[in-house]
Amino acid sequence: MKESFFEGKDFGKEKFKALMPEYYPPKYKKYILEETKLLKQKIIGANRILEAGVGIGRLVPILAPRVKELVGIDNADLMLKKSKQVAKEFKNVRIVKENLENLSKLFPPKYFDFSLCLWNTIGNVKDEVKVLRELKKITKKSIFITVYHKGTLQDRKEWYKRAGVTISKIDTGKEIFYSKSGLKSKSYSLKDIQKLARAAQLQVGEFKILGGVILWVELVHS
Ligand SMILES: C[S@@+](CC[C@H](N)C(=O)[O-])C[C@H]1O[C@@H](n2cnc3c(N)ncnc32)[C@H](O)[C@@H]1O
Fold first, then answer.
1. Which of 8, 66, 108, 197 has the fewest CB atoms found within 10 Å of its own CB?
2. Which domains are seen in the chain, by residue range?
3. Model pLDDT for residues 70-105, shown as the tens digit of each residue
């Protein structure tokens, strides 16, 4: 079944609130502010940046003026339509439809200085290791990821409620949320990320908790 969450099923004709920080509870607003600040510092001097899972293009206006080339990848038609509208303003941005499991078919080795896989995109994919391996092939320096941090079940419940997402099931042991519209959204401890990184022959560099709810990790070549 094609996942319909990122095709807008929960929101109908309304805005895609799930990717719009103005609708978030305070801790998640704080996460977004902290993430944006970190990104601005980390990408200084970069030529090419990839955003894997570009969504509605939330970060395009922040990243595009700071780099020579920005490529956003997504496989959901609604997300591609929205991010392409945002990208029209910038000559150095390309939005491409592709599955994150096939990135190395599109780009030569080490094409990007940095790759970004943010706001729990890695927690939405079928096979995290496969995606990390692909990112590793096409990234010269670091891969920055942000994921739901384990131990934040109550905060996540509040977030989905505020964003207007109907949750059909929660695996409270593994801290995985399932939406009625087909979203499966995982969460991670630092150990979980270290394990995934090792499997992809990457290693954890810097890490931080943002807003008390999100884990930010820099992955580097091992
Ligand atoms: C949680 S959103 C994050 C969007 C954006 N990075 C942000 O911070 O606003 C995840 C995005 O990844 C996309 N996505 C999930 N799995 C994907 C896959 N296998 N291939 C390509 N895009 C994918 C979804 O369609 C969605 O737009």
1. 108
2. 21-150+187-221 (3.40.50.150)
3. 999 999 999 999 999 999 999 999 999 999 999 999
50, 74, 106, 159, best to mutate for ligand 1 pocket (most atoms within 8 Å of CB)? 74
Instruction: Look up residue 88 and give its DSSP letter.
Output: T
As beta bridge partners, residue 143 has 115, 219
- What does the pLDDT read at residue 1? 40
Q: List CB contacts of 31: < 8 A, sequence separation 6 or more.
A: 146, 210, 211, 213, 214
Q: How far apart are CA 115 and CA 218, in angstroms?
A: 10
Residue 107 token pair: 């780009």
Rounded Cα–Cα distance for residues 204 and 190 (Å)? 9
142: DSSP letter: -
Cβ proximity of 94 and 72 under 8 Å: yes
Question: How many whole angstroms from 58 Cα to the centroid of ligand 1?
Answer: 12
The Cα angle at residue 221 between residues 92 and 97, in degrees rounded to 5: 35
Q: What residues line ligand 1, using a CB cutoff of 6 Å?
A: 6, 19, 53-55, 58, 73-76, 79, 99-100, 118-121, 124-125
**CB 39: neighbour CB atoms within 10 A?**
20
Q: What is the pTM of this model?
A: 0.97
